[in-house]
Amino acid sequence: xxxxxxxxxxxxxxxxxxxxxxxxxxxxxxxxxxxxxxxxxxxxxxxxxxxxxxxxxxxxxxxxxxxxxxxxxxxxxxxxxxxxxxxxxxxxxxxxxxxxxxxxxxxxxxxxxxxxxxxxxxxxxxxxxxxxxxxxxxxxxxxxxxxxxxxxxxxxxxxxxxxxxxxxxxxxxxxxxxxxxxxxxxxxxxxxxxxxxxxxxxxxxxxxxxxxxxxxxxxxxxxxxxxxxxxxxxxxxxxxxxxxxxxxxxxxxxxxxxxxxxxxxxxxxxxxxxxxxxxxxxxxxxxxxxxxxxxxxxxxxxxxxxxxxxxxxxxxxxxxxxxxxxxxxxxxxxxxxxxxxxxxxxxxxxxxxxxxxxxxxxxxxxxxxxxxxxxxxxxxxxxxxxxxxxxxxxxxxxxxxxxxxxxxxxxxxxxxxxxxxxxxxxxxxxxxxxxxxxxxxxxxxxxxxxxxxxxxxxxxxxxxxxxxxxxxxxxxxxxxxxxxxxxxxxxxxxxxxxxxxxxxxxxxxxxxxxxxxxxxxxxxxxxxxxxxxxxxxxxxxxxxxxxxxxxxxxxxxxxxxxxxxxxxxxxxxxxxxxxxxxx
Length: 583
Known about the structure:
This protein is α+β, with helices and mostly antiparallel strands. The chain has four domains: 28-127, Immunoglobulin-like (Sandwich), CATH 2.60.40; 142-265, Immunoglobulin-like (Sandwich); 277-402 and 430-454; 468-554, no CATH class. It has eight helices and 30 strands. Helix 6 (511-517) runs antiparallel to helix 7.
């Protein structure tokens, strides 16, 4: 027979067990755990911190600010799972926080708060960067080089900042992004779209993506550019992993940094105003008619062009002039344009002036002078348009002459009525001269526009998107001409223009994006060869005939979903060329 004491003890133990189970269930249901996916890591790698909260379906966002002391926050993704088993519901929310260590050694992820829950602190061991693999062991698989053409520029003078991303042959980049240079009181402008080529470092072959920027410091003193960073993903090693990585976009995350760059910016030399630093400068003029065969009352257009290397157009002054005795001038609004030759910015300002001689004889035009500072020779310079003498013949009989008054009258006179009530001509000589000057100016602009179309022009910094209304036939003709000439760059641009017409809602911005959007394997193979030819990957060039036949037949169809292809610069991993016999 069981005593009451034994029954009471058993009942107490059962109740205690239920209470402990409930307490454990509550603790499990509402716990926040923090763990690192990998530990230790190397300094050139990133790592994920996994925050896992159980028991809440409407969890607030975690406060990640304590992590910023030892880590750079690269991104966060969130997922929530809700399960119902035997009528019981359980919830789990997970945050994956991508981190880059700021230094080597033992780093700490301090407690993280999510609502009322707080995780425990976690430590991470950060080892030195991975030792180089392959070659002679002197260079890593992926690294950055940065350089400037001068470390002690003048204020407002151009500094060329070059970034090179080097990837060893055999290392496959799946994805990646380069940071842009930036610092306070610094203007940064790209110099072209960047280039791709191959080189060797320490006996190893590397693929290089090079980008150039023009920097302009707005103040003198020390200016420090922080390190340029590359965040990317490379395919894991091992047989067969490359194709799987390419298919699913999975691989090993890498992060590399360059060294910081310090500029010691010098102030302008004293007693030099206005301040115009440049590498070179030209001052030129054109006339719409010979200056020794002019007639009084007939307009002629003078075009003054100021071009400077290593400057922006807004830095250039307007060419100055004064009205000479015996002539009137009618200046037009100056045209400013900034372009690049891939090595430097080139600023250009063009000023057109209609000149109308008022009296026959000789008209003396004074010299035009522009003072500037030669940053290459580190010396002052002066560009000069020398004084010019215009020889003016008498006006054609019956031609109207401009008035010689110092300033136009402010009186408003009704058409057909002269002051004092007398009749006046319907059109005054001043109006005729103005109309003639305007007509001559329009003819000059038309002639300039026509000659500009025929002559090679400086590439401007404005990017123009393909215009779908331009027509597929015209774009096909552009591609045919590029293929006939074997011009890979022109073929590249023509294919992108055709693709913009084929998929107007989501126009691709790279040949790789076009290859992913098309269902034609022949076109994808031709695009791979073209991309390799444009960006310097080893290969025997693209196949113009195959590209023409595939693009003519394959660029079209329904608009696919948008792709993440926002980078207008050359791809960091051009596709490998597809070899085959040319047609």
